[in-house]
Here is the input.
Amino acid sequence: MEQYIIKGGQPLVGEVSISGYKNAALGIIAAAVMTDETVKIENVPDIGDIDILLQALVDIGAKVDRINRNTIKINASKISTVDVDFDYVRKIRASYYLLGALLGKYKSSKVALPGGCNIGSRPIDQHIKGFEALGAKVKIEHGMICAETENLAGAHIYFDCSSVGATINVMLAACLAEGQTILENSSKEPHVVDVANFLNSMGANIKGAGTDVIRIKGVPKLHGSEYSIIPDQIEAGTFMFAAAATKGNILIKNVIPKHLEAFTAKLLEIGAQVEEFDDAVRVKADKRLGNTHVKTLVYPGFLTDMQPQMTTLLAISKGTSIVTESIFENRFKYVDELTRMGASIKVEGNTAIIEGVEKLTGASVTAPDLRGGVALVMAGLMAEGYTIVENIEFIERGYERFEHKMQQLGALIAKVDSTDMKAIKKFKLKVS
Ligand code: UD1
Here is the structure.
């Protein structure tokens, strides 16, 4: 099994370029099957979750050409089945976007119930409610969600909660429904907007994405398009926090600063410096940072996917901080591992109470999920001595060339096989 070995204590310094947004790319790639014409997508992140979704597309008959690391062409004119029943599909949550996309185009779809990161119960009742409102019959049978109808008709849908997944999924199907659909209490996240922009570039008629009311006028069919995915706000946020955590100085390029405002505000509040440019931000810190209170919220609030990185940064900041998780109930699994590195954090229900310590010390830890895993790497970069992070496949699901980008910034990190004692020894010799 591969793992990261890290020697902590090195400030991260230099420049890093952010990849395309995983969570937007997943919706956009699923949407690409909705036309028979070829779609070219640029700035696609080269990560595990995308490989899985592309494999699913190939396995149902789409043609996928990788032009280069970050550009793909998809042609879905020869889809041979709407039955997406492959074991690997359960590994990613966003496979359920194929449900909305195929339902829109073929009026029938069947997708293995998704899994994804185990960060709490992740119901799909709002997706189902939306499809049913559009006229589909939806049932769950033998671990599959099946949606079917003779005809999709526009509807007025009020979501009970703001869900990124449900908003995108129902928006996909509604593009090819007859008449107008209105989605109220929609998610306003940047990737909802990006998927809507992509669909519009294919001839859809969607207005209001980015607000909580989205209006969709159904069109008979969609056409080919060329589109470039927005930068990943979570990858950018992770490097912003890593810069502050290691008392470093990083210019983070290819970002939309507006999408990072919630992170910027917290960093400034605890004493880091953030400078914004048109499409870049510089984050630096030269002292121990202060404490704060953070509550995860829907956009433009503080993103739940940045909660583990925030908690980790606060673990070595001065004073007592409180982090409240209001989106997913089980997103503090990494805290036990941080505690093993010397952090003083108590989790009570959905709240973490953090007593900042002077330093963390390296240990062998296990990534419990994607963002929790990356937070443990951050902890390793701040800690005294060596840290081993296991289960790094979680991290590779969502971060492109992660250890390379870190190494470019001066991080002492390597990916090694856990049984390859020679490689581990070589790393230790090199960095000692
Ligand atoms: C997406 C992101 C994930 C991020 C999350 C919140 C992708 C692939 N993943 O996940 O990284 O952490 O948004 O920003 O884009 N809910 C229901 N019923 C539903 C759907 C959701 O009750 O039918 C609840 C969930 O339990 C959760 C909240 O709504 O409490 C938000 O979930 P949602 O926005 O749907 O998250 P995902 O789309 O799964």
About this structure: The chain has a mean pLDDT of 96. The chain has two domains: 2-12+289-431, 22-228.
